Amino acid sequence: MRHITHVVGGEPWPHGAVRQGEVFDPATGQVTGLVDLASPSDVDVAVAAAGTAAANWREESLTRRTKVMFAVRQLVDARRDELAAVVTAEHGKVLGDAAGEVQRGLEVVEYACGIPAALQGRFSENVSTGVDSYSLRQPLGVVAVISPFNFPVMVPLWFVPIAIACGNAVVLKPSEKDPSASVLLANWFAEAGLPDGVFSVVHGDKEAVDALLDHPAVRAVSFVGSTSVARYVYERGTATGKRVQALGGAKNHMVVLPDADLEAAADAAVSAGFGSAGERCMAVSVVVAVDPVGDALVERIADRMTGIRTGDGRRPGCDMGPLVTRAHLDRVVSYVEAGLTAGAKAIVDGRAVRPDGDPAGFWLGPTLFDHVTDDMSIYTDEIFGPVLSVVRAPSYDDALALVNRSPYGNGTAIFTRDGGAARRFQHEVEIGMVGVNVAIPVPMAYFSFGGWKASLFGDVHAHGGEGVQFFTRGKVVTSRWLPPAGVRLGFPH
Is 281 one of the annotated active-site residues of the chain? Predict the structure, then answer.
């Protein structure tokens, strides 16, 4: 049985734990490890170590910080297969999908390698006689990152590299369901030359989260998870004076207009709906078929679903893995049952799947409902599983209104050949990330990730320029200098 513990001050936690949690292999249903769950006193130790480290790290030159980021980038790139394997073993997503997650996280590390340019300020000469003004950005100190189970590598890497490159120290609280990837990352950051204490990992549940939210030395919190918890994190964190960005849940709609390429739309709906077993905040969970394409589109989606192979993500040929835990599987299955009870038409019922894997795994096959209405729980709730709902809309205006009525605003997509319709949609839709013939419009690292409405609490999105803004404070200096007292011909240094 593996033992997974915290990494604090550059070392594994030596003190043991009062409480531990079980870590499962979702493809077998077996417990493969025990993870220590931090107490408030454990969090205190980690934050204290981070505070000491932050005071020194902020004084390091941009050249030194950049050198560390380049070394991290080299290590993650060289060992990406090892990291992907750890993700698959604890989360369950297939190896190819796990490798894609590592790549998207790596892109943020690469962005952080350019931190000197991202931190550049502005300078104005002679704002008054002999007076100059300039702006700069400085690190906050200790910041916390609370990340979810569905992306144990990518989401921490949305925040940690930028926060550290900006001169902060980070305490990461990963999901206790799949904690091992975070330990690897912390070890590799240290191997890359990051000083002890600048990046610590504390495992835990709500007790550890609350300790971070309440700790007076933690200056900012980045969170990704469900909307209910995101709201809680935002309210509790800001109540103690912290800067908080809390990314919540989603119910992402993909609108298919009558002129769309239905073959491409069906491919996209299946890929975006069932990748990672639907356990993505950017997964398409609702397809809005604008009349009269509904029947033809549903037929094409169902046909493609017959080719999806559900099974152990380590086995060649498997396309979709299990759900992360037995409890989550039971929750998603309850939504399938609720959809049937409510009168939705089950085109494909994933409960009948025969997986390529251990029968004790947490399996649910791809599921497709048609004729879903907006009062059904399978439409209103974030299911976070391989359940795709098709809603019929009589017109573009009705489809747009449906999307805009949703309390969530993370991502959306439109499939059409009409450039005017696409341009109108991207202008009118009330969603933070929009795809045009792109089902999962996740921005590249040099843009910023974030939704609207109940999908984001706070004003600043993740990574990119807004990430730099979040992890730094602005300062403006106004200066006047008297003539120098003497002559120096040496090169300044």
Answer: yes
